[in-house]
Amino acid sequence: MPVYARIDLAFERGEGAYLFGTDGRRYLDFASGIAVTMLGHAHPHLVKALTDQAGKVWHCSNIFRIPEQERLAERLVAASFADTVFFTNSGAEALECGIKTVRKYHSAAGNPQKTRIICCEGAFHGRTMATISAGGQKKHTDGFGPLLEGFSHVAFGNLNEMRAAIGDETAGILVEPVQGEGGIRPGSQDYLTGLREICDEYGLLLFFDEVQCGSGRTGKLFAHEWSGIAPDVLATAKGMGGGFPVGAVLATEKAASGMTAGAHGSTFGGNQLAMAVGNAVMDVLMEDGFLDRVHKSAEYLRESLERIVVKHPDVVEDVRGMGTMLGLKCKVTNTDLIDRLREEGLLAVGSGDNVARLAPPLIVDNAQIDAAVEMIDRACAALGGGDG
Questions:
Q1: Are 263 and 302 in the same domain?
Q2: How many CA atoms lie within 13 A of 10 on its CB side?
Q3: Residue 157 in domain
Q4: CATH number of the domain to which 218 belongs
Q5: What is the rounded distance in angstroms from the CA atom of residue 355 to the CA atom of residue 319?
Q6: Together in a domain, 320 and 351
Q7: pLDDT tens string 78-93
Q8: Does 302 lie in the same domain as 259?
Q9: Residue 5, in any domain of the structure
Q10: Which of 64, 177, 239, 305 has the greatest CB tally within 10 Å of its CB?
């Protein structure tokens, strides 16, 4: 189906932070498959884990025990707020499971009328019918009505609007700690803390969408950890498999109390291939000092980009985001900047609010950051910014 406005470029192989195109050029990959190839391309530990497992068992169904799945669940629980985990193939599926978890919690507690979830304007939660309804953006919902009932929308970052939207049917609040498609906008610490307080006050479940900002992207395993609070339910995916389709819903025992045998399921979710890669990614993320190095690299990248903003104020006006999930708010059209960056040899991707998104792999080093910033400098100069 012609649903992708594809760029006329293909890649034949990747290595670390680089992709090698069929056009014979090498590209520094700061798109990372839209924040997916978290550990770069052809990471030897991930390649070995996948190929070793491929010679054993690919799939057997969740009607049997899957030891690799149990191990990854135990590791995620040990490293997070959660008590229990459900594995999916994608972020949208994780969101779907999370939505069901929130509703089932209230139904099982004797409050079946509590079905509505308050979401934020500018959100993106996936492409299924439930998740486009939760996201609420016209560009994603147009032509697909009637949408799924049960979602309200308020301004991102506005606690007053959030509180005012709560009613007798409200079950929970669904928020991205860092909005991805909405323009790389992080929620402040006060905002996330306020959401936790509101949920506690009204008996709601706090549901975080960390599909994009999780798996170490901000320098902690999950972005909400920077705020010092925890959700009741969390959906994650993208970088969790380093490029292999893996997603998960994490929840407290209380929040998942309605999810009993038969309440949900997946044919492929959590199969042996996915779990082998998921565990390999966790091996790297949980290495002593790894996330600290990510945080330092992220600070270096942000400082470098802030100098670009100062130098080229008529092309870019701000740096947004957290960790290695950053965006340049553009004064020119963001696609013009992204196209020019690609000509320079740097891959980036667009985001909402005219933002050029930069999401390098977590293994990026300062020399590669310097190279990327030089390309951004040249691209901005070519588009009319500063002294070049």
A1: no
A2: 2
A3: yes
A4: 3.40.640.10
A5: 9
A6: yes
A7: 999 999 999 999 999 9
A8: no
A9: no
A10: 239
Range of the domain at 148: 46-285
Task: Single out the residue in 229, 250, 285 at which a domain terminates.
Answer: 285
| Nearest in space to 234 (alpha carbons), one of 219, 243, 247 | 247
Residues 233, 359 within the same domain: no
**In whole angstroms, what is the distance from residue 382 CA to residue 192 CA?**
40
Bridge partners of 151, per DSSP, are 117
Please tell me whether the overall predicted TM-score, pTM, comes out greater than 0.90 for this model: yes
Residue 279 CB neighbour total at 10 angstroms: 16
Cα distance between residue 322 and residue 177, in whole Å: 10
Residue pLDDT, tens place only, 18-55: 999 999 999 999 999 999 999 999 999 999 999 999 99
